[in-house]
């Protein structure tokens, strides 16, 4: 009898390092169309906040300048056309200095709006945005990877002799060189944080709830590219979006994608402002960028986790159950417990 008891206990013994866990069904995907519409809404909030903040700040500043001119007697308020022309000229003049503040304000508004929507829908907003803890080594590797990507990318696109890409070079200079150190700071910090939380956080998490992983990453990147306007910027942004999505998913955290994006934008500002010249310089920068990118790509892969065991897309937070509900619906363990072992022992002949 004692031997039978020992055999029964060994048969029902829990493997080392494992504990009884509840058998929960895999989360169901939401409606793909609904996921797409929610994602578009987050993108529209991002763009809309920039338009509203830019319009209000630029023209608010222009009106203030115009009112000041009227009070000083340099502008005749009885001539509406002159006043309108003065306001438009003031807006064009103040655009450069107001743009960094518009990006800062619009970024805060967009994040607050998306965060509120996710919270109202019943999700954990921090997890939905992908703001999970991440290893410092992954963040450093992502930052250096972004710097290497920017060096190689900008060196190639600005290589002397590639006249077909001069439109991109001109667009890059006009878009980045606002003549303001504040613009460089905002563009290298605030812009990456806002864009990554919205597109690699809210948008990508929403799409993953309705469609498969790869289409979600591609669609979020295409949406990111479309919102950048021109064809050259759209292709660049979509390519960057695919890389950022891979980094965020691989690291299980948007913080890694933010670090890479900061590295890319910061290195791009430095590259354009330094204005390097000479084919040999560009070739050296291209090779150095590729080396930095490759080395840190290997380090990031080493220190992060495979996409095969990726956590499921965020689900709404479940309502807490009462003690009565917990008793009426006990958790079914995966391995045997003491009670099941005793029952099995009693069934032995």
The ordered H/E elements are HHHHHHHHHHHHHH
Q: What is the radius of gyration?
A: 28 Å
**Strand content of the residues, in percent?**
under 5%
Helix content class: over 70%
Tally of alpha and pi helices: 14
Terminal CA distance: 9 Å
Main sheet specs: none
Q: How many separate domains? A: 1
Low-pLDDT regions: 17-24, 319-344
Task: Give me the secondary-structure topology.
Layout: H1 2-11, H2 32-71, H3 80-120, H4 125-128, H5 136-157, H6 166-176, H7 181-188, H8 190-210, H9 213-226, H10 231-251, H11 254-274, H12 279-303, H13 323-328, H14 338-346
Helix pairs in contact: 2-3, 2-8, 3-7, 3-8, 5-11, 5-12, 7-11, 8-9, 8-10, 8-11, 9-10, 10-11
Written overview of the protein:
It is a single chain. It contains 14 helices and no strands. The radius of gyration is 28 Å and the shape is globular. The protein has one domain (32-309). 72% of the residues lie in helices and 0% in strands. The chain is mostly helical.
Give short descriptive properties of this protein.
14 helices; 72% helix; single chain; 349 residues; globular
Summarize the structure.
By secondary structure, this protein is an all-alpha fold. Helix content is 72%, strand content 0%.
